[in-house]
Write a structure and sequence with these properties.
The protein is α/β, with parallel strands linked by helices. It is about 35% helix and about 20% strand. The protein has a six-stranded antiparallel beta sheet. α12 (about 245-260) runs parallel beside α13 (about 275-290).
Length: about 425
């Protein structure tokens, strides 16, 4: 299900007020249709890492496809007053918004691609008024989902092939934070989510166990396990740390033996507290000794890539990782810090005029031009990216990407990362 269907309302006002005041300024000064180019990019890799995984493009394109101001939107804008009690937005401008149709060209890097600082994830070219209105909604979509997808990729990498499940809905920043995070985490490589709505909306596999409240609802822990096993004889994962973890494992094994005798099979044991390295090692011993070598051990409890790496080094016997709070909230970095900057402006039939934002902070100086990113490969492995302005095409191969120093290497190849996903010319043909 698309972004606009999820909200079932116009998203034209999913923006900051100053985007609309600038839009009225462009309209009133006769600049509304002046052609411009904006780039959306970020300045630093998150989590002090070496890469970023872009995500959120499908939602961004859906927003653009459905962009437009409803009568309710326009009525709300018409009700706003300035500091002197005057109407803030003029009727002529409001009529312009009523009739506004999205006519920009959009190039973007596909979701799930590894990207790096200052590379445009998305390039918008079209009337400056339209480009300006898109800044805030595009940033709120791409910033968050890119951040979570990157966190997920780091967790998956730390898990070294183990299954990773997203468990974080209850700790997410609100309902849409939970849904968007589940989507982004899946792009980042997690295999499943506990979020049922995300599973429905995006066809993500859903997984779950049971809570401590289930165990506490019965007189004895073994009764709770038996009851759950009766309901799910082939899909039970028992949470064993409600009282005493290793005693809980022994009771789970006893119940699993009865399930097996009746044709069922325990799927897994979940550890949610304590010394996960020690407990998983001891749990594995108990399971193997009882003939349950294929029963998985799932761990949760505020895990992230750093804790997973530590547990791996300690020899933990964990097969599946349930990652919650620190994934969906991108716990150690609250925001990506993506920006959206004007890079080129064209007046009537004149040539493009490149725009440069200066700053006393070097990192905040923008890159002028109509930018594209070219990725170079050798032996099918990426070896470097180059940012360049498309009007000044770079044709000759660079010395560092030729196979001269590696006689057995295959010739390099290159590809443009920004792909056309929305263009006026293609729409005219539809």
């Amino acid at each position: 299900m698309s972004l606009t269907q999820r909200f079932r309302t116009s998203l034209a006002l999913l923006t900051d007020m100053y985007q609309l005041t600038m839009a009225q300024g462009y309209w009133k000064k006769g600049m509304a249709d002046q052609e411009a180019v904006f780039h959306l990019y970020f300045r630093k890799n998150p989590f002090k890492g070496g890469y970023t995984l872009c995500a959120g493009l499908e939602d961004a394109i859906d927003l653009l496809q459905n962009f437009g101001f409803t009568e309710e939107d326009v009525a709300y804008l018409g009700s706003l007053k300035g500091s002197q009690g005057q109407v803030l937005f003029e009727e002529g401008f409001l009529q312009h918004l009523r009739e506004l149709q999205f006519t920009c060209d959009v190039e973007a890097i596909p979701e799930g691609t590894a990207v790096f600082p200052n590379e445009p994830l998305l390039r918008i070219k079209g009337p400056i008024l339209q480009c300006q209105l898109l800044e805030t909604p595009l940033l709120t979509i791409l910033n968050f989902q890119t951040l979570v997808a990157t966190k997920a990729a780091r967790v998956v990498d730390a898990a070294q092939g183990d299954t990773v499940i997203e468990f974080g809905m209850r700790r997410a920043q609100g309902p849409d934070g939970a849904i968007s995070a589940a989507r982004a985490a899946f792009i980042g490589g997690v295999k499943a989510t506990s979020n049922m709505l995300a599973g429905k909306l995006f066809a993500i596999p859903v997984k779950g166990t049971h809570a401590h409240s289930w165990v506490m609802s019965f007189e004895r822990e073994s009764e709770a396990f038996s009851a759950y096993g009766d309901v799910f004889p082939h899909d039970s994962v028992f949470l064993v740390d409600t009282y005493n973890t290793l005693e809980g494992v022994k009771k789970a094994i006893a119940v699993a033996s009865k399930m097996r005798a009746q044709g069922g099979e325990l799927r897994g044991i979940r550890l949610d507290s304590g010394d996960l390295a020690y407990l998983s090692i001891e749990t594995r011993k108990l399971l193997d000794a009882a003939g349950f070598e294929k029963v998985a051990i799932l761990a949760s409890n505020d895990l992230d890539e750093h804790l997973i790496q530590s547990l791996k080094l300690q020899g933990a016997k964990i097969d599946t990782w349930g990652i919650g709070t620190k994934l969906v909230t991108a716990y150690d970095q609250p925001a990506l810090g993506g920006v959206y900057k004007l890079a080129a402006l064209k007046k009537d039939d004149q040539d493009w005029e490149y725009k440069l934002k200066l700053s006393e902070q070097l990192v905040k100086i923008s890159t002028p031009g109509i930018l594209q990113v070219r990725r170079f490969y050798r032996n099918n492995s990426p070896i470097g990216d180059m940012i360049f302005s498309e009007p000044q095409q770079v044709q000759a191969p660079l010395p560092w990407c030729t196979p001269m120093t590696l006689p057995n290497a295959k010739p390099f190849r290159m590809t443009a990362l920004l792909k056309t996903c929305w263009s006026l010319s293609s729409r005219k043909g539809n």
